[in-house]
Amino acid sequence: MRRLALPFLVLLPLSGCGLATDLTSALAGVAAGTATANPALGFGIAVGTRAAVQAGLNWAVRVRARGEQDAVAEVIGRLTPGEALPWRSDHDIPFGNEEGEARLVREMVTPLATCREALFSIAEGEGAERTQEWFLTTACRQGDRWKWAAAEPATARWGSLQ
């Protein structure tokens, strides 16, 4: 069994998140099917393992995206009209930290909510090769904090911020 698991374990870090769920579930299913000599049980465990690992990865992606969105919204809340400030998200696991700039476009005050529309950028690259892509978003005051108010999760162009 260890000989079978070793290639999977070596390839797992190189495969990315999409393949991690498949490899983990296949390994769990094969192990359970072999240990119990029941292929139906092995299949059931493989499906359950895949669902659990995928749910865990989805949760981790949502937590990271929320951290980045909160970092942008916090800066938007500190802006005055026409002002630009840098933003940065620092994750507990220092991988995929993002940074850029936010610029206040307008403020919308209604009896229901105070919101701000702002441009924000995501910086890519280093040094002379550094570029910025710009996007428009809305942040609204929620108590004493500002929160991301744009709901466009299917927009692929936002990269890690979706």
Explain the overall architecture.
It comes from Roseomonas populi. Residues 1-20 form the signal peptide. Keywords: Signal. This is Lipoprotein. The protein is an alpha+beta fold and 162 residues long. It has 2 domains: 2-60, no CATH class; 79-161, no CATH class. Helices cover 46% and strands 27% of the residues. It contains 2 helices and 5 strands; from the N terminus they run ααβββββ. Strands 1-2-3-4-5 form a 5-stranded antiparallel beta sheet. A hairpin with a 2-residue loop joins strand 4 and strand 5 (145-148). Helix 1 packs across helix 2 (39-78). The longest helix has 40 residues, at 39-78. The radius of gyration is 22 Å and the shape is elongated. It starts with a helix and ends in a 14-residue tail after the last strand.
Task: Give the neighbour order of strands across the main sheet.
Answer: 1-2-3-4-5
Give the overall average pLDDT.
78
Biggest sheet: strands, sense, closure? 5 strands, antiparallel
The total of beta strands comes to: 5
What is the helix tally? Answer: 2
The share of residues in helices is 40-55%
- Rg (CA only): 22 Å
Question: Looking at the structure, what is the overall shape?
Answer: elongated
End-to-end gap: 40 Å
Signal peptide: 1-20
Keywords: Signal
Protein name: Lipoprotein
Main features:
162 residues; alpha+beta; 5-stranded antiparallel beta sheet; 5 strands; 46% helix; 27% strand; elongated; signal; Lipoprotein
